[in-house]
Amino acid sequence: MLGYALQRFLVLAATLAVASFVVFGVIEILPGNAAETILGASATPETVAALAHKLGLDQPFALRYWHWASGALSGDLGLSYAYGSPIGPLIAERLAVSAPLAAMAMAIAATLALLGGVYAAGQRGKTGDVAVMAASQVGLAIPNFWLALVLVLIFAVHWRLAPAGGFPGWSAGIGPCLAALILPAIALGVVQAAVLARVTRSALVETLNEDFIRTARAKGLSRGATLWRHALPNAMTPILTIMGLRFADLLAGAIVVENVFVLPGLGRLIVQSIGNRDALVVEDCVMLIAVTVIAINFLVDLACAAIDPRLRTRET
Amino acid sequence: MSETGARRMRRGGLSLPLGAALAALLIGAAALSLVWTPYPPAALDIPHKLAEPSLAHWLGSDSLGRDILSEILAGARVSILVGVIAVAIGLGLGVALGLLAAARGGLLDQAIMKLSDFAFAFPALLWAILLTSTYGPGVVNAIAAIGVANAPIFARLTRATAKGALASDYVLAARAAGRGSLAIIFDHVLPNIAPALIVQATIQFAIAILAEAALSYLGLGAQPPLVSWGRMLADAQNWMYMAPRLAIFPGLAVALSVFGLNLLGDGLRDALDPKLRARR
Hints:
The structure holds two protein chains of two kinds.
Chain A: H1 2-29, H2 34-39, H3 45-54, H4 61-73, H5 87-122, H6 127-141, H7 144-158, H8 174-208, H9 211-218, H10 223-260, H11 266-275, H12 279-307, H13 310-314
Helix pairs in contact in A: 1-12, 5-6, 5-8, 5-10, 6-8, 7-8, 7-10, 8-10, 9-10, 10-11, 10-12, 11-12
Chain B: H1 5-35, H2 68-104, H3 106-119, H4 124-135, H5 139-166, H6 169-176, H7 181-218, H8 229-237, H9 249-272, H10 274-279
Helix pairs in contact in B: 1-2, 1-9, 2-3, 2-5, 2-7, 3-5, 4-5, 5-7, 6-7, 7-8, 7-9, 8-9
């Protein structure tokens, strides 16, 4: 297991290096630069060149990449052009909203998906199965930010049960903060649940055809107990893997949903920074999201290997 | 234990016509908007702003008096434009890389697959955000971003299906008959992997529509005077208390289009490729 973990860690490091190169490079290899974007079309070449010099854009690519990457590794994410302050603390402040939001959304998604998927697999081919799968087909089609708007219409505008947006700050206590996060988390979670319920169902259906399930039933275990205690643990590897992969989508969705609810999270910072033409903040935020996704998938790999020893040897 | 064939036929049989009908509705709306809309979609009519649905404005009018039905019809154009080009970019890049990986194997194969593994950490929205942060928002950047995000999905699918085709007896026979690699790819491999690609293209089309709506909602996609469902929803949000119905119709348009395309993909999968169906 330790050897496997070490090997996955090397892959993780390599992936992170490629990711940083992509995030930094995608902006650099294409024509135009940040100074032109900041100053707009009416700027003279001289002012563009002056700002480019001030931002360090006239240095060679490799040198700038080195400054950015080595700075990020030592916790220095650079200076925000628009806020005039270090980007690290700026992002940390926003993470206090985005991280709990993502965790809540994933918890909602996982709960709904497991309940729906296990139920559908148990009812395979019957009305219950068709109903859950139809519901998930609808869930797949609904844009998360539209679901967010509809939730605002129902729970904030019509019933006035939850705030329509904004965030009171953690100093206001846990209750109001969770109330501010619950609708966004539902909007994000329900859409992910639609995907994951389908995965859960098909992984379970495959497992249910195995011999050990027949053995469990033959020794007198109930259908429910067989499903939850024997089938689900064995079907967990593909479910966890897809959950890890979908996390990227969930974080990207959070960028949009945070803007619906005017939550001061990472997503709002990204969109504001695009508006402010603050490319370095955007780069750092996107890199952070990529790092989170890659790290989560690393943990998922380890969890899968812990659950299923066969994976430790099969992996290249 | 397994699903009965009849049930599967019935379900597959329902997805295909329903999905095709909804997709036809989307294309029909876009085509109709090219020749006719009740009002010019961008025409302001401030005196009649926020009108309730009526005979004059079937779905009502928005905060600047624009006719919602006209905007929805015209919005279908942007959705289709983004979907078609983004899927074409994804198909072009992905199929080329996937075929290369399948045909060459070895290090090149591994490199391409590792790259596409890694690309899953970057959904279309993140690519779009990266691009717009340097080049400013716009529908072209949105299309490029969604297209690039599509490429690894098609690359994986192409590689997996093409490997099977390349190992088949008919390819061996073609090779024995002296056909060149390119001829084999075009005459034997591509026709055999096409059904899987068509199914995936339908689903990526739906995902592209969702991504475009999200980007335009954020103000990073289609810019005025282009009408986009995502932008309509962003406008609607300012009037949630006075005219909540503004937020309903554009969202329904997105959801119905995506729902239809997903169903179409599922239906096509059942109709075109019995092997995929068995694996499900």
